[in-house]
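Dear H.,

Thanks for agreeing to be a second pair of eyes. The structure we're designing against is below in token form, covering all 531 positions.
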């Protein structure tokens, strides 16, 4: 039986072999057992640490983290964290391979037989990042812990680590239970699709869908969602969990990943392709003709669906969305586009903030494929995004059983798209003398400031009147945006234009301003300009 006073924590990972992280925050373990926090810059508050029951341990009881450090190298992250939590007298529900959104969901699910809701959830993953950047994502029923919370955990853990260095072996009083949570979570997704098709048992019968889980955690979507709904599925090469991700980087923002799913759709003559990142908080789709439904197009598609349900609502997006998307949402769909900052947490928190000020918003979405809906607790869930598309398909098929992904493609008709779309990432050399010992952020900010002043003197270029980060400029029939990366010493440059020539003019304007900064590596931009 589970202890009465103890909390229950759900724990899962993204890969059966080795695990990969995401970006709410991650913890890296130094060789000496010390810890450092590399939290996502710009992530905003979701909850406060005192709401986290499992952290309401008295002084000295946070030795669970100490135990994690001690056994880390021997047992791996999952065993270490389980060991630490049970030593602190709390119970662990182990879910095995699971998606990040499911971990949050387990703090909401009412299912006493399976010991849910959990008091907190911990996901071990590197998300779309390389396999050697594993870490933990923490959730309570209020959402994901943010960087302030993680910093607090780390500071407290490091104190406890020092204090308890001599306290010897801890007794394991918590209980570990294995729960097939992904079946519980997936059955809700299945019910949602059935509901939109008038409670038809197999509303996707006759549809052929390829799923590319990038060899991460998304394989459940085939067996536990699509097959029960009657779809014929393909994509087995992408479904077997393999932490080394042998096919491609599991990230719908990645070109090779999108090419892989597109090719699979065409080769299999499928009706639809669905792609997830490693831990299923990002997703994208491909229609039967091989047209990618990702980035601006996926936001346009989701906006069309959500605005049908909530006319006039505000769609909050990240900062690198296109001007065409704004026109589509505002002129075609009658909604409002609020272009905010990069970072899915920023976008979600902004949508929540808007609602609290009386401005109705039901969708927060990033070009990265992260999307969150008010109706789904503002959880950024790639599987739920795809379920919204399936709902649309299933509903349409009750009227016309032969209809396929055209229903979705038609919804983005009228979205103006630039002929040239590029993202060029310019690195800052943090050790360069030109930084004069300052941080790369300060250096990046001074580049942006200089760019702004150069632009103000150019009659062909106009700075966007309303902008929440970086420098966004329109001109030559297109636009560019230069900003600081959320995590890395990098200035990502996005350019969209109707021709390569116009894109080059925009790129040259950036280069002219950037060339004064010798610690900025402009090789990638030069390469683009010389192509
Ligand atoms: O700023 P960048 O380096 O482009 O990274 C931006 C991305 O960072 C993380 O991966 C977040 O999860 C994303 O929401 C965000 O889009």
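And this is the sequence the design step returned. I haven't edited it by hand at all.
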């Amino acid at each position: 039986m589970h202890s009465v006073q103890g909390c229950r924590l759900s724990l899962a990972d993204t890969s059966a072999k080795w695990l990969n992280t995401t970006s709410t925050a991650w913890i890296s373990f130094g060789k000496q057992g010390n810890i450092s926090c590399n939290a996502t810059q710009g992530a905003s508050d979701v909850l406060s640490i005192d709401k986290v029951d499992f952290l309401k341990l008295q002084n000295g009881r946070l030795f669970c983290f100490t135990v994690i450090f001690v056994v880390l190298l021997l047992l791996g992250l999952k065993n270490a964290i389980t060991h630490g939590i049970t030593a602190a007298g709390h119970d662990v529900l182990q879910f095995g391979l699971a998606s990040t959104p499911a971990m949050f969901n387990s703090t909401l699910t009412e299912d006493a037989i399976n010991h849910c809701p959990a008091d907190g959830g911990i996901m071990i993953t590197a998300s779309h990042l390389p396999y050697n950047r594993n870490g933990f994502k923490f959730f309570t029923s209020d959402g994901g812990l943010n960087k302030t919370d993680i910093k607090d955990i780390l500071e407290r853990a490091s104190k406890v680590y020092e204090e308890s260095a001599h306290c010897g072996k801890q007794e394991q009083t918590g209980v570990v239970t294995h729960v097939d949570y992904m079946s519980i979570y997936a059955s809700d997704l299945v019910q949602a699709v059935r509901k939109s098709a008038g409670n038809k048992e197999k509303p996707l019968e006759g549809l052929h869908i390829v799923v590319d889980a990038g060899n991460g955690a998304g394989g459940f979507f085939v067996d536990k969602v699509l097959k029960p709904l009657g779809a014929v599925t393909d994509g087995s090469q992408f479904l077997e969990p393999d932490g080394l991700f042998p096919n491609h980087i599991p990230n719908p923002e990645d070109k090779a990943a999108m090419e892989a799913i597109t090719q699979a759709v065409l080769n299999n003559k499928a009706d639809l392709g669905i792609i997830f990142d490693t831990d299923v908080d990002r997703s994208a789709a491909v229609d039967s003709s091989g047209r990618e439904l990702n980035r601006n197009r996926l936001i346009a598609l989701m906006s069309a669906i959500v605005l049908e349900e909530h006319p006039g609502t505000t769609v909050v997006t990240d900062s690198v969305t296109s001007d065409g998307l704004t026109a589509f949402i505002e002129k075609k769909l009658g909604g409002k586009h609020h272009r905010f900052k990069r970072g899915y947490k920023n976008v979600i928190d902004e949508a929540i903030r808007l609602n609290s000020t009386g401005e109705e918003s039901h969708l927060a979405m990033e070009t990265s494929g992260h999307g969150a809906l008010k109706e789904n607790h503002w959880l950024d869930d790639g599987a739920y995004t795809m379920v919204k598309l399936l709902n649309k398909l299933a509903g349409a098929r009750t009227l016309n059983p032969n209809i396929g992904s055209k229903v979705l493609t038609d919804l983005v008709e009228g979205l103006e798209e630039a002929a040239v779309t590029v993202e060029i990432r310019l690195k800052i050399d943090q050790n360069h003398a030109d930084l004069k010992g300052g941080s790369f952020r300060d250096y990046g900010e001074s580049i942006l400031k200089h760019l702004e002043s150069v632009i103000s003197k150019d009659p062909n270029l106009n700075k966007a009147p309303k902008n929440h980060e970086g420098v966004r400029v329109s001109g030559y029939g297109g636009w560019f945006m230069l900003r600081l990366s959320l995590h890395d010493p990098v200035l990502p440059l996005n350019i969209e234009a109707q021709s390569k020539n116009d894109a080059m003019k925009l790129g040259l304007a950036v280069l002219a301003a950037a060339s004064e900064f010798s610690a900025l590596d402009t090789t990638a931009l030069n390469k683009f300009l010389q192509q």
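Two observations from my side: The chain is about 35% helix and 20% strand. The radius of gyration is 24 Å.

Warmly,
E.
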